[in-house]
Input
Amino acid sequence: MPITSLPFDHTYARELPGFYAPCQPASVRAPLLLFFNHSLSEELRLGLAGQDDAALAALFSGNALPAGAQPIAQAYSGHQFGHFSPQLGDGRALLIGEVIDRHGLRRDIALKGSGRTPFSRNGDGKAAVGPMLREVLMGEAMHALDIPTTRALAVVATGEAVFRERTLPGAVLTRVAASHLRVGTFQYISAHGSLEQVRQLADYAIARHEPECQEAANRYLGFLRAVAERQAALIARWMHVGFIHGVMNTDNMGIPGETIDYGPCAFMEAYDPGAVFSSIDEMGRYAYQAQPRIARWNLARLAETLLPLLAEAEGQAIELATEVIDAFPARYQHHWLAGLRAKLGLSGPGDDDAALGESWLDLLHAQQVDFTLAWRRLADAAEGNEAPLRALFAGQPGLERWLQRWRERCAAEPAVQDRAARMRRTNPWLIPRNHRVEEALAAASDEGDLTLFEQLLHALRQPFDEDPALARYAEPASGAFMAEFRTFCGT
Ligand code: AMP
Ligand code: MG
Output
């Protein structure tokens, strides 16, 4: 039964003419549903319960868009590895509509890999099964870790080949986002449009994401501050689970503060502040520890586009923007420290908490200890079971000294009954382990076998619960695997 209509709205298309190009998805040869996110579909109130796979595949391949869809390719620019590309835009994505979800929030629904658009440049507009399923795994893992993220609604295999370094099976991903507004969207309008259009975009973003700023004396300053605050919180969350985005270009930084673009991302295994996995990030611009600094740099690019709106006199506008950008490191530190305390099992602030955390991380680094397991075993130590933690450290005396400090710090707080349990709610047992992700994607892409993908996805949905049946998903990859491990932009 074909799906004939969806409750789509189109505020972006309606309110921001000139910021996009209308464009139809390419039709695909043999759509086959590989993944459908039923619970997300319910959350979005799409009314798709009971639809058969063929109808969902026809819809989410772009072959049979329902009435009410109005596909557009959004325009944006971006600083890529520090260099400004004035004309990027959706080269292989189409926003098909917006819906209001169960919580009353407006969400974008977009296809990715749906064919060429006016922004495709030399690209084919296509996507492959492996990278699109990877986006499912990473996004759903982040969601289960309670980290703001875009999410995958569906993946449909196209039955067509995509030509990269080798021939791959093609796929279309359906992505859901609080919006697809990016720092790069502002850069595009600032570079190509009028001041009035920059104002239009900012007003749109404020109405959609920061309605409380509408009352502020300087709404655009309030907006900049709110975007920076959300990024500070987001990057702190990334750091606390060892997430490395891998390609923090300004076009991959979302205004709503969700993690977006799961191309070359990876979770760190052994703790290494300099960790980089992306094959194209040769200089380590987007290394793990560089992420807060890069976020600030990207926000400065956003601030530049807003200058004419911040104040009439340029000098004053620069002063206001600089204040927000200069405050970013402290705002980031605030969120990082709050997260650190939770991970350490502390319920209130202490003066030396940052130093306590740093010296713990130094220990992990010195011994190349697995980041996720070390935190998890620290929760066991909080209830007196220290052996599993010690086993990770190969008898390092520094660990004993540090544990002593930590125990004293914990003892200085009113006795907490459920410290270990609280630590387990913030220190995940499971992250998407790189070797598990790779084996699942290889089976799906090379053999069309989704069993490992589905099992892994199931495991990643409960990252805080230790389940012996899922132990293989908690095991770190071997050092040899990680030494060779590289990620690629999802093209
Ligand atoms: P990304 O690295 O995914 O953030 O993409 C950067 C830019 O390249 C965006 O404008 C994309 O739409 C575009 N792009 C990436 N892959 C393709 C492709 N296969 N065909 C057309 N455009 C692409
Ligand atoms: Mg991108």
